[in-house]
Amino acid sequence: MSKFVKLAAVAALLTTAAFADTTACAGCHGKDFEKSALGKSKIVKDLSKEDIVKALKGYKAGTYGGAMKSVMQGQVAKLDDAAIEAIATEIKGGDSAKVDANATAETNATAETNATAEANATT
Ligand code: HEC
User: Fold this and answer.
1) What is the largest CA-CA distance in the chain?
2) What's the 90 CA to ligand 1 centre distance in angstroms?
3) Among the four 2, 58, 79, 81, which has the fewest Cβ within 10 Å?
């Protein structure tokens, strides 16, 4: 019995992982969504998570897209909202816990010490 429970848990985990599977997207968008798909799409990894979700839901609803939107409509047809969210999260840095890892501490402490001591002591 407990063995069965464990197996079920593992199966559930595997299912969740497969949920955000983006391998099918890689052929066009690149492994890390770093390419312009078929030379037409935006670089998806540069979009915000919100924009990715908006685009994918829009393709599904037929309310978003350019000249090649039919390509993407085929891609998202089988995804539900949760899968779209999971994919967007995945694109923006792995699991949800890592999403905020983009907190690039831009410590551009450009200490402008232009202390040009113009001691023009012109007497
Ligand atoms: C057969 C090639 C192909 C595959 C596979 C594909 N895409 Fe696309 N994708 C495109 C093209 C082409 C566009 C631009 C479509 C248009 O004209 O709106 C696009 C656009 C997008 C956009 C919006 C970017 C923009 O330009 O506004 C997102 C987000 C996106 N794809 C995500 C995905 C995801 C996630 C997958 C996998 C589930 C995927 N794509 C699979 C070709 C592909």
Assistant:
1) 98
2) 15
3) 2
